[in-house]
Amino acid sequence: MSEQHYNFFESVEKSFDKAAKFTGWDKGLLEQIKACNSIYSMRFPVKMDDGRIEVIEAYRVQHSQHKSPCKGGIRFSDEVNQEEVMALAALMTYKCAIVNVPFGGGKGGIKINPRKYSAYELEKITRRYTSELVKKNFIGPGIDVPAPDYGTGEREMAWIVDTYASLKPGEIDAAGCVTGKPVSQGGVRGRKEATGLGVFFGIREVCNMEDVMAKLGLKTGVEGKKVVVQGLGNVGYHSAKFFREHGATVVAIAEYEGAIYKEDGINEEELFQHRKQTGSILNFPGAKNLAKNTDALELACDILIPAALENVINGENAGKVQAKIIGEAANGPLTPEADEILAKKGVLVVPDMYLNAGGVTVSYFEWLKNLSHVRYGRMEKRFTENMNTHILAQIEDLSGKKVTDAERKFILHGPEEVDLVHSGLEETMITATREIMEIWKANPSIPDMRTAAYVCAINKVGTSYGELGIFP
Ligand code: GLU
What we know:
By secondary structure, this protein is α/β, with parallel strands linked by helices. Among the domains are: 38-184, Rossmann fold, CATH 3.40.50.10860; 194-355, NAD(P)-binding Rossmann-like Domain (Rossmann fold). The protein contains 16 helices and 13 strands. It has a 7-stranded mixed sheet, with helices on both faces. The radius of gyration is 23 Å and the shape is globular. The relative contact order is 0.13.
């Protein structure tokens, strides 16, 4: 089978069309949901440390404004191109709809390899990009709110909010112009691990479904499952961490320099430190090096988590995948050919569009925090603790028994910001998983979970267009 007949955006369109058949929406409305509303392609000059001027290619795409603001990350990568940013923006629209986050989809990209630039050069590029967005009204807490993505993180978000705020003096909600900020700059606790934790919550929910597990020939629950993770960036690292902490065994991890295998499990933090010291994940004590990083994708395991870039599982290698469940932590790691091959093999593909929605879900919480100008938990933590102390004292008095110290600590604890964020995320991921599975069960001719997720998204976006009265 020849690979890549279509670019990433066309792949997304293909998946959309496959799902649209299972919905009853008007053809024109489906066209509108699918289309990218606004595309800003820009070029700007930046003076590098050696005095050279480089022309930077960058994009911001607003796929849908059926809800405001638009939302989605900014990636720094050599591979950035307009179609890719369009595809990623479209995925954001569907993702937000599925997890009931009231945003339209957006995405940004700067075509650079961040490893090749100094911190100062990156700061200049990021600040200039932000001011270009301001000039064209493509950023703002009520317009379009970027966030981290591949190659960007808290540091870049801090530059963005600082640039935006300095260009918009007196804008009281300026902090809400971007999410994924450091906590000291208006970020929310729990954002950093959010995508990885969301991946874990989503897969755990799937693994807790008896009928789904029975079909795959697996025992229910995450405990004891063999997991392979591709990518040790923020998403891969945290996915590995939560699976390990909940009793799964992370037998292999891959990065662009190679892959390692360790039957009794890899501790992601130890591997992270090893990589920091040696510059590579290879030669990790007790682990076997694999010849190619892509070999990790073909290992025998229960759960495979691609957490790096798109198209890594394609027509060429999908037939060799041995995992029973693929959890798409990255955006678009499977091509449509791979989808078809894997569906035939009976592999359950848990789709990116909702599985990696933890990031944007917690971004929503961060944005709400910025607009409300108050930290989560500030108003109720002490009140809850006082109330719990009182209730527990009454129970102990009436029963004449005392709970253990550990129990006391647990019962009295009032919610901190991070507790509320994690619990909001858990609720979101469980609800979304169940909604998608319900749609799939209600219509057995839907071929896979991705199509069911698209049906869910199309119905929600379609309904809100209907509510806007655009299509009477
Ligand atoms: N870049 C992440 C994603 O693809 C997060 C987006 C956001 O928080 O707005 O979902």
